[in-house]
Amino acid sequence: MQSGLIAYLDSVKSRDPAARSRWDVLFYPGVTALALHRLAHWLWEGKLYFLARLVNHFSRFLTCIDIHPGAKIGERFFLDHGFSVIGESAEIGDDVTIYQHVTLGGTNPTTGVGGKRHPTLRNGVVIGSGAQILGPIEVGEGAKVGANSVVTKDVAPGQTVVGIPAKPVPVDAIHYSTGFMPYGTPFGEDVDPVRARLVELEQEIEELRKELKVVKATRQSQPKAKSA
Length: 228
Hints:
35% of the residues are buried. The protein is an alpha/beta fold. The protein has helices at residues 2-15, 22-26, 29-45, 49-63, 173-176, 193-221; strands at 66-67, 72-73, 78-79, 85-86, 91-92, 97-98, 103-105, 120-121, 126-127, 132-134, 138-139, 144-145, 150-151, 160-162, 167-168. The protein is elongated. The protein starts with a helix and ends in a 7-residue tail after the last helix. Strand 14 (160-162) and strand 15 form a beta hairpin. Strands 3-6-9-12-14-15 form a 6-stranded mixed β-sheet. Strands 1-4-7-10-13 form a 5-stranded parallel β-sheet. Strands 2-5-8-11 form a 4-stranded parallel β-sheet, with no helix packed on it.
């Protein structure tokens, strides 16, 4: 158990350059919230719903993080800073990182499949701060969701999405940010799909203007035919 805790603290420390030691990590609100959720989820699975909710409310009061006792969370989960909401039927895989002010929200129960109305995050997913993941969708393994994005459709494994609604970035995000990508947001390049397309259109218009200028100059240089 001790070695498992140390491995978990080390996994969090590797994703947060601000952590000076394992003791720092141990008192993170996300770590506290996860520990209390493990207890609440165990009570929930045992159908002790009132006690599970009691632990959940205490955790929310203590950490400002609301994780429903029914949510399923894998190993080495890191919720940085907090102020986030994770719904009842949400499923989170291993090595997932979620930053502050994120919602794993549900849809109308009648639209879900078998009561499933919250997202599923596969292993290694990174969710940037302020992102809203809504509905019984799936964010594939290793995918990244940029800060303040709104995701309402499935995200393919390894894909990086940004914007409202979230769309795949038009550049290779790994090229610009090797290894772990903080906040799930590539830096050093304009990754907004709409702005990137507008830039492409502006370039095409500029090329057309140059071609039109050449055509006009060619026509003006040609001698005019004399009238009979």
